[in-house]
Amino acid sequence: MFTGIVEEIGTVQKIIKNGNSLQMTIQAMKILEDVKLGDSIAVNGVCLTVTSFSSQLFTVDVMPETFHSTSLASLKNGSFVNLERALAANGRFGGHFVTGHIDGTGVILRKEAKENAIYIDISIPETGQAYVMEKGSIGIDGTSLTTFGVNDEFVTVSLIPHTANETILGMKNIGDKVNIEFDMLAKYVQLALAKKTEDSTHKSKMTVDFLKENGFA
C-alpha cells in the first residue's frame, strides 16, 4: 500500500530488455536508507519488488503484464522516475489509498501555467470514466492528485510548485504517457453498485409467470 506522496526522484541507470519483460536498475538515495530484499517500491506508481540493492542502486523486474499495461516500457537509461516506499504501519498517511496496481495509461493533452499552479489535462481510458469525479483523488505516475475537471475523455489536475519540483510531472510535456491509478474506494463503490444492480435484475426475472413457464409453479 502506498500514499501517492512521492519521496524522491530516481534515475534509471540500466535496462535489460528480454522480449516483453524488463530488468531495471535505478539510482536513488532516500528510499534506500532502510531497504530490504523483497521490499515493495512504487516506480512511477507501479508496485515493484526489490531484487537486489546497494547503497545507491536497486534492481527490479517488470513482468510482461506490467510491460504492456504501464508506461515503464518507454523508459530509457537516464529517465527520471517517481519513487515511494510502501507505507509503514506506523507511518503518516498523507495522500490517498494507492495500491501500485495501474489501471491504464493516459497522455498529457494540455499543460498550462496559471499563477503559481500548473494545469494539466490527461486523457483517461474509457473503462475508467466511472471512477473519476471533480475534487476526487487520482494517482498519476504515482503522485496523489485532486481532479479539478472531468469529462468523458480527460481529467484536469493542478500541480502546486512543490509537486512540480519534487515529482517528474513538472518535467512532463504534451504527448508524454503517464500511468493512471483510479481511486480504490471509487472502484469498490462502483463494483458494489454494479453487483447490486445485477442482483436486482436477476431477482426481477423471478416472477410467478417465470416459475410457471419452467415447471416450478
UniProtKB/TrEMBL annotation:
Molecular functions (GO terms): riboflavin synthase activity
This protein's encoding gene: ribE
InterPro entries associated with the record: ATP_synth_asu-like_sf, Lumazine-bd, Lumazine-bd_dom, Riboflavin_synthase-like_b-brl
UniProt catalytic activity: 2 6,7-dimethyl-8-(1-D-ribityl)lumazine + H(+) = 5-amino-6-(D-ribitylamino)uracil + riboflavin
Function, in words: Catalyzes the dismutation of two molecules of 6,7-dimethyl-8-ribityllumazine, resulting in the formation of riboflavin and 5-amino-6-(D-ribitylamino)uracil.
GO terms classed as biological process: riboflavin biosynthetic process
Keywords from the named record: Repeat, Riboflavin biosynthesis, Transferase
Start-end of each Lumazine-binding repeat: 1-96, 97-193
Protein name: Riboflavin synthase
Assigned EC number: 2.5.1.9
SUPFAM superfamilies with a match to the protein in the record: Riboflavin synthase domain-like
